[in-house]
Design brief:
The chain has 615 residues and is of the alpha/beta class. It has helices at residues 10-14, 19-29, 34-41, 60-72, 92-99, 102-105, 117-134, 146-159, 179-192, 228-236, 256-259, 321-324, 337-374, 395-407, 430-444, 480-491, 514-517, 523-526, 538-555, 567-584, 602-609; strands spanning 78-79, 138-139, 170-174, 195-199, 210-217, 240-245, 263-267, 283-287, 300-304, 310-314, 379-380, 388-392, 410-411, 413-414, 419-423, 592-593, 613-614. It is 39% helix and 11% strand. α4 crosses α19, α8 packs parallel to α9 and α20 packs across α21 (602-609). The longest helix has 38 residues, at 337-374.
């Protein structure tokens, strides 16, 4: 029997015209082949002389098998790590009708409001959710991640200094802030001339040269601090106050807005978006109306159409980089819209009561864990908590617990301060917490009875009393069928590749083939925490290394970073590499960047953020 190979070539299904159409076009313009057309139109001095050395292409079926192989190399342990990335449950109607639906992931940036009303409403829901939970007055339609949102908040307030604070350049950061957030802030600060001081917030010195403070709520170690007095003291000295807040904790905690924060940032990952080894996830950014013309990213506003009917559009665009260019305070444009829509729909689906039930369950299990660890006479670092308990132990005991935990396929968070943190996610079962308690029991040779408790965990002064998610959209779609119909209703208001072609060339327009996106729904990729031991992420590391090598071969450059979370962040990273190169050569004075007037608005904005002058 003749061996007929698989012919399901990717290029034939997704890219460009058919062979007969190519032949017809070549005949029309009088050229024999596509190769000859290239040689006649592309200047000789930029034509490659050697083809990139890449692996032979594979079929889509072979790709799916390869992705399954790679995913199987990742180890799915039970994660109690937390640190800004949490175990969560993606509701099936959201997964099937949004994440896996090209009617939601193939649209263009909503510059044309008349063909984007569905997405704009979904993003307005996201903004409303953020405003309600944070207690602020205005929110944007997402940012790239929590670290970026924190850096953007610092940059925004640095640009808003005035009067006696015009020359102040010190920014105070609590040492209870996530380290990855501090790292992003450090990168941004050094190129803007901002001096950072990282210390316990109890030691903050609110001097005249301080323009802003940044705290975590709840803190990295799980503790819940009342920042009302700190914020009040800062306000009296015209110092801006920023809080990074766990969005789910705000269901039970007094909002940062009620405590006096000027800006609240954070991640919405735990609202139904898988961890995915660190992303992508939609961050949020909420602040006061006073600062609305300095907010980074998109803002969706309510307007009217030509017939006076309610309509939505992107508002206050004059503050954005595509208009302000080098005078913009941010290079962010479209951010994590798909993930923001998922997080917003998570709130729509669960509503205020559902979110409260999830938060109360997590907090209840955390109280159960706290009481049983306390019975072991352990030194618990935080007496207040929402979902995280931190214990201080001798290094030897920590190593012993870590070894047994890994053997039991359990991940905890081990800091370099001789502490172990245990975070409770949405999908954690009581039996799994009992396993964690047993780890400590075995190592400490204690055999205490597991104890249900009435420990509070949240200080009475910080318990939320204000209402949230009162808009009817958060109570009308509680069944799967109702939510599905609402999602479809919005989807039909948008133009996507399911409706027509989109004749625009842009950084936003990528090929999102079904076989490429299949892996996004895979447990083997979705449920990997970014802080797991690297041997648990062998599949991810193989894929990342392979992609880096392929991009290096295609571009002809020796090094590749996959860290930037958007095109604008890639520009920013590249500009910082160039700057570091000049500094290394002793030519730090070379700080002028030539940018054509036709360039994308993020280009000049990124150059300024990197500390350059734009010409």
């Amino acid at each position: 029997m003749q061996n007929i190979p698989l012919q399901e070539k990717f290029v034939d299904r997704h890219i460009g015209p058919r062979e007969n159409e190519i032949t017809e076009m070549l005949q029309t313009i009088g050229v024999d082949s596509v190769e000859k057309l290239i040689y006649e139109t592309v200047p000789d001095n930029i034509l490659i002389t050697k083809q990139p050395e890449l692996e032979a292409p594979i079929t889509e079926y072979e790709l799916l098998k390869e992705m399954q192989r790679i995913a199987s190399k990742n180890k799915l342990f039970k994660n109690f790590i937390g640190m800004g990335y949490y175990e969560t449950i993606t509701p099936s109607p959201i997964k099937r009708n949004i994440l896996e639906n090209p009617g939601w992931y193939t649209q263009y940036t909503p510059y044309q409001a008349e063909i984007s009303q569905g997405r704009l409403e979904a993003l307005l829901n996201f903004q409303t959710m953020v405003i309600d939970l944070t207690g602020m007055q205005i929110a944007n339609a997402s940012l790239l991640d929590e670290g970026t949102a924190a850096a953007e908040a610092m940059s925004m307030f640095y640009s808003l200094r005035k009067g006696e604070k015009k020359n102040s350049n010190i920014f105070l950061i609590s040492d209870n802030v996530f380290p990855q957030t501090i790292d992003v802030i450090k990168t941004r600060a050094v190129h803007l001339g901002i001096e950072l001081r990282i210390e316990n917030e109890d030691n903050f010195e609110l001097t005249e040269d301080v323009f802003g403070i940044f705290v975590q709520y709840p803190g990295m170690n799980g503790s819940i601090s009342n920042y009302e007095e700190l914020f009040k003291s800062a306000k009296e000295k015209n110092i801006f106050c920023i809080a990074a807040a766990d969005i789910l904790s705000l269901v039970l905690l007094k909002s940062p807005g009620e405590l006096g924060a000027d800006c609240v940032v954070g991640s919405t990952q735990r609202f139904g978006v898988p961890m995915g080894f660190g992303g992508p996830h939609a961050a949020y950014f909420a602040t006061k109306e006073d600062y609305k013309r300095s907010i980074p990213g998109r803002i969706i506003g309510i307007s009217v159409d030509s017939k006076g009917r309610r309509a939505l559009r992107m508002a206050l665009q004059t503050r954005e980089q595509h208009i302000k260019r080098e005078k913009a305070t941010s290079n962010i444009c479209t951010a994590q819209v798909l993930l923001a829509i998922m997080a917003g729909m998570y709130a729509v689906y669960h509503g205020p009561d559902g979110l409260k039930n999830i938060a109360l369950r997590i907090h209840g299990l955390s109280k159960y864990l706290y009481e049983n660890l306390k019975n072991l006479k352990l030194e618990i670092v935080n007496k207040s908590f929402f979902d995280t308990i931190t214990i201080k132990l001798e290094k030897e005991k920590i190593n012993e617990i870590k070894q047994i935990a890994l053997e039991s396929q359990i991940n905890l968070y081990y800091s370099d301060q001789n502490t172990i943190s245990i975070n409770i996610g949405e999908n954690v079962a009581k039996t799994e917490i009992d396993e964690v308690i047993k780890l400590f029991n075995d190592v400490l040779s204690e055999k205490e009875e597991l104890d249900d408790s009435n420990t509070n965990g949240i200080p009475e002064s910080l318990q939320r009393e204000s209402q949230f998610l009162t808009n009817k959209v958060f109570t009308n779609y509680r069944s799967e069928t109702e939510l599905m119909r609402y999602i479809k209703y919005l989807e039909k208001k948008d133009l996507s590749l399911t409706t027509s072609m989109i004749p625009l060339g842009s950084c936003t327009m990528k090929l999102n083939a079904a076989s490429e996106l299949y892996a996004l729904s895979s447990q083997g990729f979705g449920n990997i925490h970014p802080f797991v031991p690297l041997d648990q992420a062998a599949g991810y590391l193989e894929m990342i290394k392979k992609l880096e090598n392929q991009l290096a071969e295609i571009t002809g450059l020796p090094g590749v970073s996959l860290q930037p979370n958007s095109g604008a962040q890639g520009e920013y990273t590249g500009l910082l590499v160039i700057k570091a190169y000049h500094i290394n050569r002793g030519e730090s004075h070379r700080n002028i960047v030539l940018i054509p007037s036709s360039a994308h608005g993020t280009n000049p904005a990124s150059a300024v953020l990197a500390g350059n002058k734009v010409v």
